[in-house]
Design brief:
- With about 350 residues, the chain is mostly helical.
- Helices cover about 65% and strands about 0% of the residues.
- It has two domains: about 1-215 and about 225-240, Cytochrome Bc1 Complex, Chain C (Up-down Bundle), CATH 1.20.810.10; about 245-360.
- It has 14 helices and no strands.
- α9 (about 245-255) crosses α10.
- It is globular and about 70 Å long.
- The two termini are about 40 Å apart.
Length: about 350
């Protein structure tokens, strides 16, 4: 957010000047290159942390009762982050920014009856133009950050109300001493502060390494096509979103056949939206007697591994050009992604679980 404020001072949100202003920041603004790389790398690092945070919650059952609201607000934060990332992705006004926006926004045109009007409303024009860029700039810089700050505040308040989960999935508030303090609870300082300082130090080391040595990350953080100014008359050979959207983009491309009189684009949009929406109902899909993966049966462990492999594979497939073989692979991994969630009410209820200890283990 801080780097974004400084970048905004020199950025021009217009179709004529956006690309040139980014080049100006890189070449003529003092330490502009550092601010730009910190901002782009920070966006990717943010999503890495968010995905790891979500995976940890799925691993230890942090979405289960009584933390359903914490999970739902967290998912709202994830949605807002996706919107923030997409709006920011368009701002450099390079080839990939322009055509990526063209592809994603045009998807809404597949919605029956209201699709075309919705696309025009989002763009603010009959095509992706300076009006769209200015609109996305406003949302990226003002509206969505305010929404994120509000949601993060609510997330922390909700978490404070029910307390943090632990790898054992045990509610420590059920076991208190004579003073009403949980026996397995520890003070935030110095235990969590020292623990977090170490994690932050490792994160900053990796973060700085990427900034100074691999800011483009082979085209995954900064796409090579974006070093060329947007041209509506020249389509890139391969259009792909930034890496943190590629799993869902692969699901979109995996749908190739029309159904019930509606084209494949519409059903691809349904699948992509469903892949995100199903995460919201995760607390009610898991019917296991235990929360943590430590005490769940082997089926849950195998299914979680399959889910992770599917998500990573879809991320890779969404970042590369589509071929018939890769489309089939994306269809298989998309099916496995949904099997993990839709089968959860059954395999979590049927499997044999391990006994959960009454106290948190070491």
């Amino acid at each position: 957010m801080l780097t974004g404020i400084w970048l905004t001072m020199s950025y021009e949100p217009s179709a004529e000047g956006a690309f040139a202003s980014v080049e100006y920041i890189m070449r003529d603004v003092e330490y502009g290159w550092l601010l730009l790389y910190m901002h782009s790398t920070g966006a990717s690092a943010f999503f890495v942390v968010v995905y790891l945070h979500m995976f940890r919650a799925m691993l230890y059952g942090s979405y289960r009762k009584p933390r359903e609201l914490v999970w739902l607000i967290g998912m709202a934060i994830y949605l807002a982050l996706m919107a923030e990332g997409f709006m920011g992705y368009v701002l450099p006004w390079g080839q990939m920014s322009y055509w990526g926006a063209q592809v994603i926004v045009s998807l809404f045109g597949a919605i029956p009856v209201v699709g075309d009007a919705l696309v025009e409303w989002i763009r603010g024009d009959f095509l992706i133009s300076g009006i769209t860029l200015n609109r996305f700039f406003s949302l990226h810089v003002i509206a969505l950050p305010l929404v994120l700050v509000m949601l993060v505040f609510l997330h922390i308040v909700a978490l404070h109300e029910v307390g943090s989960n632990n790898p054992d999935g045990i509610e420590i508030k059920k076991n208190k001493d004579a003073n009403g303090i949980p026996r397995d609870g520890i003070p935030f300082h110095p235990y969590y502060t020292v623990h977090d300082i170490f994690g932050v130090a490792v994160f900053l080391f990796v973060f700085c390494t990427v900034i100074f040595f691999f800011p483009e990350m082979g085209g995954y953080f900064l796409e090579h096509a974006n070093f060329e100014e947007a041209n509506g008359l020249k389509t890139p050979a391969h259009i792909a979103p930034v890496w943190y959207f590629t799993p869902f983009y692969a699901m979109l491309r995996a749908v190739t056949s029309p159904f019930l009189g509606l084209d494949a684009k519409f059903w691809g949009l349904v699948v992509m939206g469903g892949a995100i929406a199903i995460l919201f109902v995760l607390p009610w899909l898991d019917r296991s007697k235990v929360k943590s993966i430590r005490y769940k049966g082997w089926i849950s462990k195998v299914m979680l591994v399959i889910f992770v492999i599917s998500f990573v594979a879809l991320g890779y497939l969404g970042a590369i050009a589509s071929t018939p073989g890769r489309t089939v692979a994306a269809q298989i991994f998309t099916l496995l992604y949904f099997v993990y969630f839709l089968g959860m009410p059954f395999y979590t209820r049927m499997e044999k679980t391990k006994p959960v200890p009454e106290r948190v283990t070491s």
